[in-house]
Write a structure and sequence with these properties.
heterodimer, A: alpha/beta, Rossmann fold, SH3 type barrels, Elongation Factor Tu (Ef-tu), domain 3, 3 domains, five-stranded parallel beta sheet, 17 strands, globular, B: alpha/beta, Aspartate Aminotransferase, domain 2, three-stranded antiparallel beta sheet, 14 strands
Chain lengths: ~375, ~400
């Protein structure tokens, strides 16, 4: 990062260990910094709705996290601001999240947030206030490859913290203006660094759940959100059927299910049953035994390419179909204007529409798309 | 970098003479104004002298002054102290949250509230007040000067309507105090709020004027302080500071400080409108306090403008702040019918008696440059990708 000392860097500060360490690290390197926290969602907004936890302890945009981020900024003597991007978050993350579930898919709000908020709105805000680059606490690496004339996104040193799956949507210009200073470190090393910088929050636990859903009950969240919007929850109830089409019972709405789900089906069976597929139009949820979950191909749309400009002919790649998934070997083939078919060498379990398929060549992210 | 502070409507710096007046009451004269001994007696006398100063400032009797912790408490005391279930309250859509949220709370207690609209210039129609009156109207609460736009409401006329209808009238004068002459009899109000830190006294001090004969239910249970209207040991040093600040404000009004501030504000406002196209003043056609301008600049985000200016050394503001410190959309501009996009593209600059000619020169340059820069990046909500070419770092 030599030669960039003169450029102001906006650090996306969540109040957690990772982004706080990024701020301390860049400050120690002598950069001019501005700390930014995005106010994305008001945790109290749905607190009075039925079934929502009364004691809201959610981690998204809480006053406590802003306090932690502010404390770090004060300690480092860097200007710090909370910027309000609630409208954009609701439009680009919350609403699509709700609509995806109601359409029988399983969304990834973190990817939407990265694509629309962290690496779009925040980059814009940073640029508006005079910072050319942003730095985040993501575990990923990026670098420019002159030979290919492309920005490359790579997996981090700490494979267990790899966040590249959520970053597949980054465009070249976004990667060009982003720093991932933690890419070369493991999480324990980052905690050690944080302690070394004297950050009081070095031991703060990692966030796990979806930030705007305290307690993780996304079904209650969807219902509470629609109620607040003055919309009724659409009746997506229908039949539970087996692969052969025989009825196995009723269900109360397709948004209650995700492909591969085992709990909450309410069916008695000698062997465990899983959700095999969800049909939005007929509102049918197909259930079956584990072998029926296996698929040897999928299609992905709304693609983003990172290490290549686009697919020409077939391409071999390792493909991740969910965050916690060991990449599986597959062949990619363009099947439409903005559609790729992924044919796996060996069948994979629970291909879930709404999740992302992210293509890797060793440590590099080739690109990815949304599973349909 | 010498910073330029143009956010006087948020708070003002303490005047040196105010600090000097307060100093002994933190140190040697530390007594409790309710105590019988000499330490207490000195404190009591200091509080009463401050009360007399504030009374002169408002043109009322010292006994009509209640010291509080600030504008919010005074507004709450005026409202909750006056209204009971079954009553009707008239207020406006552009009040400060200290009034708005207080009367919204009353609605849960079987009180009817009318929030009167304002016109495009931020003015409430006096006729609307008259029309809103009901037999059970207990209170009219209208601010004198709006904190965001500086627009002055016709409180004198409203006071006459209230008097005819024999309805209690509360005026939140927080943003007017010190900026123009305040006479409670000219306004005809029964209750009037001022805040210390908006007029160079310390934060955490305020006053509620309570006209003689106006019965008020106290907010707090406790001792018999402030003629049983506000329990709690007096903030002696703060009250002394407020008294001194009131004297300084009266002196300033006599010696033409508001006129000087108005000239600076007008130069800033006109200068920006000359230099920047597609810009205007929210409430610019209405009567306003002399220190405030609320400008809109199309094709940018006010929040980003305020941050960019702050990083360049100019403190201004846009909208209100929520708990985390992020800006929130302005209910005042919304009530004036300002389109949402333009309301988000607004900048409030507010001056005070220490603002200098040089600072206004600097502010003109800074705001003009930052608006031009931000407009180059403008994407009108379409995000970053469309605005930035792919470049190698």
């Amino acid at each position: 990062m030599m030669g960039e000392q003169h450029k102001t860097i906006a650090v996306a500060m969540s109040g957690g260990v990772d982004s706080s360490t990024v701020a301390a690290m860049l400050k120690a390197e002598g950069h001019v910094l501005v700390g930014l926290t995005m106010q994305l969602w008001n945790q109290r907004r749905l607190a009075d709705k039925e079934g929502m936890p009364e004691q809201v302890q959610g981690r998204c945009c809480s006053i406590d996290d802003v306090y932690d981020a502010r404390r770090v900024a004060e300690m480092l003597s860097i200007p710090y601001y909370v910027v309000n991007h609630q409208e954009r978050f609701e439009r680009d993350v919350i609403r699509p999240f709700v609509d995806e579930y109601l359409s029988g898919r399983t969304p990834i709000p973190c990817s939407l947030c990265n694509n629309h908020l962290k690496f779009d709105q925040l980059l814009l805000t940073a640029r508006q206030i005079g910072a050319e680059l942003i730095a985040t606490g993501h575990y990923a690496r990026n670098a420019y490859d002159p030979a290919r004339a492309r920005w490359i996104l790579k997996r981090p040193a700490d494979a267990s913290k790899d966040q590249t799956y959520f970053l597949f949507g980054l465009a070249q210009e976004q990667l060009a203006h982003t720093l991932f200073p933690l890419g070369d470190f493991t999480k324990p090393e980052v905690r050690e660094l944080a302690r070394g910088y004297g950050l009081a929050l070095a031991g703060k636990p990692d966030s796990q759940e979806i930030c705007f859903i305290p307690g993780g009950d996304y079904k209650r969240f969807i219902e509470a959100y629609l109620e607040e919007q003055g919309e009724s929850v659409p009746d997506t109830g229908g039949e539970l059927v087996s692969a052969g089409g025989q009825s196995r019972g009723k269900h109360e709405g397709i948004h209650n299910f995700t492909v591969g789900q085992r709990k909450g089906l309410g069916l008695a069976s000698p062997s465990p049953l899983y959700v095999i597929s969800i049909d939005r139009d007929s509102k049918r949820v197909t259930v079956g035994e584990e072998p029926e979950l296996m698929r040897d191909s999928l299609r992905a749309r709304r693609l983003n390419w990172i290490s290549i400009a686009g697919l020409s002919g077939e391409m071999r790649a390792q493909v991740k179909i969910r965050h916690r998934h060991d990449p599986a070997w597959a062949t990619l083939r363009q099947t439409g204007d903005d559609e790729v078919e992924v044919r796996f060498d060996e069948a994979v379990r629970a291909v879930t529409p709404g999740q992302a398929a992210v293509f890797y060549a060793a440590d590099e992210v080739i690109g990815g798309g949304w599973i349909v | 970098m010498r910073r330029i502070y143009l956010d006087a409507n948020a708070t003002t710096p303490l005047l040196p003479e105010v600090l000097e007046a307060m100093r002994p009451f933190f140190l040697e004269q530390f007594g409790n104004a309710s105590s019988i001994h000499q330490e207490g007696q000195h404190a009591r006398w200091a509080v009463e002298q401050a009360r007399a100063s504030v009374a002169r400032f408002l043109g009322c009797r010292p006994a009509e002054i209640v010291f509080t912790s600030g504008g919010t408490e005074s507004d709450n005391l005026a409202i909750f102290g006056s209204v009971k279930p079954g009553d009707h309250v008239i207020t406006t859509a552009i009040e400060h949250h200290a009034v708005l949220h207080a009367v919204e709370k009353l609605r849960d207690r079987a009180v009817d509230v009318d929030f009167l609209p304002v016109n495009g210039q931020g003015l409430v129609a006096v006729g609307d007040i008259r029309k809103a009156l009901r037999p059970n109207t207990r209170l009219i609460s209208v601010m004198m000067a709006n904190n965001e736009t500086g627009v002055l409401q016709p409180v004198g006329e409203i006071g006459r309507i209230a008097a005819e209808a024999k309805v209690r009238f509360h005026v939140d004068a927080v943003q007017a105090a010190g900026k123009l002459p305040l006479e409670v009899d000219a306004i005809g109000c029964h209750l009037l709020t001022i805040s210390g830190h908006k007029m160079h006294a310390p934060q955490g001090t305020g006053v509620l004027f309570v006209r003689r004969g106006t019965r008020l239910e106290p907010l707090f249970a406790g001792g018999a302080h402030e003629r049983q209207r506000r329990a709690g040991t007096e903030n002696v040093a703060g009250i002394v500071g407020l008294g001194k600040a009131a004297e300084c404000a009266m002196e300033g009004l006599r010696s033409g400080v508001p006129e000087r501030i108005r000239a600076l504000r007008d130069r800033l406002e006109r200068g920006l409108l000359e230099r920047v196209s597609e810009a205007g003043v929210n409430g610019g056609q209405a009567p306003r306090v002399p220190n405030t301008t609320n400008l809109w600049f199309d094709h940018l985000e006010g929040e980003a403008l305020v941050i960019a200016l702050d990083l360049k050394g100019l403190a201004g503001s846009s909208g209100a702040a929520c708990a985390s410190g992020a800006s929130e959309p302005s209910h005042v501009l919304e009530a004036m019918g300002v389109p949402a996009q333009r309301a988000r593209a607004s900048l409030r600059l507010s001056l005070q008696k220490q603002t200098t000619d040089e600072e206004i020169d600097q502010a003109l340059l800074l705001v003009t440059a930052q608006v031009a820069r931000l407009r180059e990046l403008s994407v009108d909500g379409n995000g970053y990708r469309k605005s930035v070419p792919a470049v190698a770092r």
